[in-house]
Amino acid sequence: MNIASDYMDNEEKVFENAQKNLKFFDDNFKSFESKFPNRFVAVSGANLVATSETVDDILEKVKERKIDESDLLIEFIPLPGSILVL
Length: 86
Prior knowledge:
Blueprint: H1 3-35, E1 39-44, E2 47-52, H2 55-64, E3 73-77
Antiparallel strand pairs: 1-2, 1-3
């Protein structure tokens, strides 16, 4: 294999993992909403790997568990019925 091929293979893997993580998040949003309101959740490998009130704490937990950050989805779970203004 050459460098360009390795790069493309890695990019495809990252994209596929991102899709799996997002699907897992979407499929489990209602459960997350009831269990983790007003918190951040981190998903990796289509599994919930951490929850916290801050992103910094999530990243610390992920680092401790040696989870690849390129395979990480971090989302905020608002209080049920709330509206976030960005």
